[in-house]
């Protein structure tokens, strides 16, 4: 894998509290475009369909952890609206700038969403949500933190959790670099995109971590392009 045999975890600029608000919002906009071309929301929607969201009547509560600019829960809300499904979405993030950006996007899309200021690694995850998800977050974490977060999410969710993240490979490194430069002018996105792929997990690695976290029946599959989806449902 041309130097990608082992993951390389290093700080990303978007996680730096000193990043300017303007540069942060610019990077969030670029990340939203990358999520769009990578079908992040569609991948998570696929996990919700596996859980039978389109077969059971009634309201479903959904919380996206480390939501960033909130584009994933917003798009899920729009998908549910088009299909006549009652999906109540929320997003949680530790960054007030990200939540402000997400709130603005939700208002423009006419999506009623809840936005929570939350550090999911340090604070309790609110109960009462049927499904918890996170997209492009696990690769920011050390292995032990990944296991801890997955276990925490599995206990808080009523019905299941869905993860969407990058898969580490040399092919994906090239595709993500190209996508970042084509879809965003943010130098933060350009630099962080490479760091993200180098820090990402292979499918075998995330499977081992899921088992360590107690998610014995987790389904893990590739999600084109460049990503995987982990779906775990409570039995």
Description:
With about 240 residues, the chain is α/β, with parallel strands linked by helices. The protein has a single domain, classed as 3-Layer(aba) Sandwich (Rossmann fold), CATH 3.40.50. It is about 45% helix and about 15% strand. It contains 8 helices and 7 strands, in the order H-H-E-H-E-H-E-E-H-E-H-H-H-E-E. The protein has helices spanning about 20-35, 40-50, 70-80, 95-110, 145-155, 170-185, 185-200, 205-210; strands at about 60-65, 85-95, 115, 130-135, 160-165, 220-225, 225-235. A 7-stranded mixed beta sheet has the order 3-2-1-4-5-7-6, sandwiched between helices. The radius of gyration is 16 Å and the shape is globular. The termini are far apart.
